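Table S2 (continued). Query chain:
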Amino acid sequence: MGRRRTAVKRNRNAPNAPLDDLIVSGGGSVPITSATYRSEMDIDRDGEVDSTDQTLRGTTWVAALPKGALSTPGPGSGGGVDSIVGWSGYRYDQPTRLYAVRFRFYDAVTFRWLNRDPAGYVDSMNLYGYGVDLPPQN
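Corresponding output:
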């Protein structure tokens, strides 16, 4: 039988030692319960520094969004006061001044839905109400 290699103890004098020092080349791993476990080396965050992390280390990573961006704006939703996308994804239609919300339209001037709630009498007997029929308060 072949000799099984074990993970080497991390050298505290060389904290930036390569990931290879933590991983057993024969398929071993360093579990999160081990004193030598290093969270920054656990690239896939599965609780073990293993060969998967070694593979991921060689992967070229590209930022999904520009630095500081929280999301990628879609067409017509550039943000700011001219954005057609509002609260909870409501889409604003400028010519009619109505909000399209899934299966019905909402009028922010009268604080009312123009269509009945397709879900029926879920929250109250009023099928046209919104926000407990209370207008915004300052």
